[in-house]
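dumping this here so i dont lose it again. seq + smiles for nicotinamide-adenine-dinucleotide
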Amino acid sequence: MSEWENKIKSKKIVVGVLGLGYVGLPLVREFTSAGLRVVGFDIDQKKVDTLNSGRSIIKHVPHSDVAKMKESGLFEATSDMSRIRKADSVIICVPTPLTANREPDMQYIVKSSETISKYLQKGQLISLESTTYPGTTQEVMIPILETSGLKAGRDFHVAFSPEREDPGNKQFTTKTIPKVVGGLTKKCLEMACQMYGAAINRIVPVSTLEVAEATKILENVYRCINIAMVNELKMVFDRMGIDVWEVIESAKTKPFGFSPFYPGPGLGGHCIPIDPFYLTWKARQYGMATRFIELAGEINTNMPHYVIQKTMDALNEKKKSLRGSKVLLLGLAYKKDIDDLRESPSIELIELLQEKGAIVDYNDPYVPQSIKQRQHDLQMKSKKLSEKMLASYDVVLISTDHSCYDYDWIVKNSKLVVDSRNATAKVSSGREIIVKA
Ligand SMILES: NC(=O)c1ccc[n+]([C@@H]2O[C@H](COP(=O)([O-])OP(=O)(O)OC[C@H]3O[C@@H](n4cnc5c(N)ncnc54)[C@H](O)[C@@H]3O)[C@@H](O)[C@H]2O)c1
């Protein structure tokens, strides 16, 4: 047994997780549950303090889990990056957004690599998890790490293992989602597989760093394109008087060759609206166009406009214009049962409604007030739902289908409901006021 394997088996390894967000924190939880010691690194001192006080920073990792991690004595968060020296590995989970020109914004990967290079030690394993274009680890991360004077694959080890976190998914957790791992060398791959294998049920080794990077991109492009396809079909079938959601339910009874995807008011989240464009950017360097991705992007970004048009048509039927109408938007988060606002189409819907002169409020049990985003700052607070309150709006627009909403009650007490998620599918009475969008 190698010294590394022995260290893992005897639980003497110290795992560093850099970036304690939606991806980093669940990973910390898995390693500590497996009995390994974890030091969490973050530049956000408030996050560090909150975690060290035993409280969580994201809804789907409960406070009790963070308290347990702390009580076990296995986890500590810190903003003192010099402690990287003492970790056996550092797993990087920092954001990878797009710039204003929709190009990969590598600043977080660059900065965290620069930080690690200052404290890098012989024998350490550095694993990148952030979603990015194929080639990032070799072309961006390794050259920065090597400014330390140490050589990748000889003095320190490098892996790429894409995060497949799906916040709010009750069926799969970080532990049960198979983990794809690529290494710079055979030894890097072996070490990374052993480390992740201590906490995660199934490890899927692949031959190169680039295959691991491209795997994540394929998964997200697949979702992005399929969602665009059902969004387009939603609009086409609507013209034909056919309900796309019923069609999908029917098609998914086919036991092979069909995976259901669902239409919505537009794409949201940190991944699907963004990651495919990392590949588009990289493909250009090879003189290639990613036409499927561009087309899917075009259709998906048009969806909020489609929902607004349907809302205007529904009001028009009632002899009302959108200008001056009171609109209540339900669900600010980008998908159901989570508190994440990143790239949420609800934000765009609110801005479009306001641009057209509507008076807009929102309710979201998970988002008591809007949080400033890179390009948006709504500065709004969630309004408490009541029968009287619902009745005071000209239209209630369902943007996110949170499970905790009582849709029968909402329909019963509203004047008009525009449903962009088929959330009211099971509502039996009052259907005449529902318009699907
Ligand atoms: N959120 C998801 O569901 C999800 C799923 C799969 C993959 N991913 C990918 O995982 C990566 C991380 O996403 P996330 O959602 O966890 O982001 P996040 O914004 O929730 O967390 C990132 C954390 O990194 C910290 N950070 C930024 N720069 C740092 C630095 N230089 N040093 C230390 N800490 C730093 C931030 O303060 C923040 O706490 C992204 O590439 C994303 O595409 C996310």
